[in-house]
Each structure stands twice: as structure tokens, then as C-alpha cells.
Amino acid sequence: MAQTQLFVSTNINEIPTVPALQPNPAPAEPNREPVLILVIGSQKGIDKIVSALYLRRFAEIKEWSQILPAPNVGKLMRSLIRYVSLD
């Protein structure tokens, strides 16, 4: 539980307010595999995770998809595609 609290605790003043754009995934390469990352929850919860990942230089906020309804009733989601090397 302490790790989760530390993970989502960010200084809101450091988070840019860039509107999310639909990502354009890179073309598939033979030695790379696309991996889909989903964040599902409330809009506020999703925004905190996406912002925390931005502050840790994992992904730009604009790389995430627009907010979409999730399969779970009452939940929302955003996605991100990352390519990983299979070597």
C-alpha cells in the first residue's frame, strides 16, 4: 500500500496540461512487439497515473489515447502502446 501511495503522489503544479492526442504507433518491426498498456478507473485516478508516469519519463501525456469508456460499467480508460525488443 505504501508503494501505491508513493507512486500516485505528485506535485500537481509540475504536470503539464497538454491535451491527449490519439497516438500514432510506430510501424511493426521484426524484433519488436507492441504491448498495450491500459489504465482503468475514474478520470481523476487515470489522470494521476498518467501524470505520475509522465513525471517519471515513462511516456508523454500526448502519447496516451483519449479517455474512453471501459468495459467495466462506470469506469473509464486510456491506453498506450509501447514496443519492446524480443531479443
3D architecture notes:
This protein is an alpha+beta fold and about 90 residues long. The chain has a domain at about 30-85. It has helices at about 1-10, 45-55, and strands at about 30-40, 70, 75-85. It has a 3-stranded antiparallel beta sheet with strand order 1-3-2.
Biggest beta sheet summary = 3 strands, antiparallel
Distance between the termini: 34 Å
The dominant shape is globular
List the secondary-structure elements in sequence, H or E: HEHEE
The largest sheet has its strands arranged as 1-3-2
Structural class: alpha+beta
Low-pLDDT segments: 1-10, 15-22
Mean pLDDT: 79
SS strand fraction: 25-35%
Query: How many individual β-strands?
Result: 3
Give the radius of gyration. 14 Å
Helical run tally: 2
* Approximate helicity band: 10-25%
Write the layout of secondary structure elements.
Layout: H1 2-8, E1 32-41, H2 43-55, E2 68-69, E3 76-85
Antiparallel strand pairs: 1-3, 2-3
Descriptive labels:
3-stranded antiparallel beta sheet; 2 helices; 3 strands; disordered N terminus
Concise overview:
The chain is 23% helix and 25% strand.
